[in-house]
Amino acid sequence: MLQSDRRLFTANSVIRLKLSKLSAERIILAKVGKTYKFMIFLYVTCKDVDEAKKIGRALVEKKIAGCVNIAPIRSIYPENGEVREVEEASLIVKTIDSKVQLVEDTVRALHSYKVPCIASFSLHRLNHEYKNWLVSCVA
Questions:
Q1: Which end of the chain is more exposed for a tag (fewer CB within 10 A), N or C?
Q2: SS3 110
Q3: pTM for the complete prediction?
Q4: 123 pLDDT exceeds 80?
């Protein structure tokens, strides 16, 4: 392979990589009136299922989440030089972009951890009927 061929192959690979990343970064939108809302799923860990239920119920009652899924999880992390393994609970909070800050504020206010995990997921696909239902709950 000639040096120029290698450069061309590398350039084409980079272009393909960038295009594949763009297609993977599609954003799920839902139309609300004349505007579009970004669909957001947030992942939150809690000390136990009771705390997760308290936070999840508050988010839905305030209409800043359309749905919250709760599941028991097992977490492994370092603390004070040792590896700990504990039972926790996770929340998947389903909302729209304009409610994310309110969700974060509510989670922080009700959470027992000094530094709770509040992470968002990139959505690649979401069925139309669920999108419409979710928006009707929070918009």
A1: N
A2: helix
A3: 0.74
A4: no
